Amino acid sequence: MFSIGNLSRATGVKVNTIRYYEEAGLMPQTERTAGNQRRYTASARDRLHFIAHSRALGLPLDAIRRLLELSDKGRDCTDAHEIAQDHLRDVRKRIARLRRLEAELLRLSEACDHAPGAPCGLIQALGDHDQCHGEH
Predict the structure, then answer these.
(1) Mapping DSSP to helix (H, G, I), strand (E, B) and coil, where does residue 88 land?
(2) What is the pTM of this model?
(3) Which residues are paired to 38 by β-bridges?
């Protein structure tokens, strides 16, 4: 059995985050000692590792909740694969957007000639969205 502090150290998840996951229904409510301290089992530790790893991969809490439900029910991996594929599509969209942002920021930063006392092309471009090339 783990106290919340020991569980935090064992998983690298902050105590407040563990409490948040409990409130969000991702972690089961735990038994409490006579002194009202939470006590966690090894399976709760494993579940928290799963949640933490999923969060590190950027999965949203709703997707993690669905994956945990699938795991709890012993369902096949078809639904889990679909969740992973949806997240992968979202990640690729974000990467594409970041690449567009990178290109636009590079273009805008090159618009500035760095001449002392001269108007800054970068500041002017940031003040006028019409100077941007495309969506970002």
Answers:
(1) helix
(2) 0.78
(3) 32
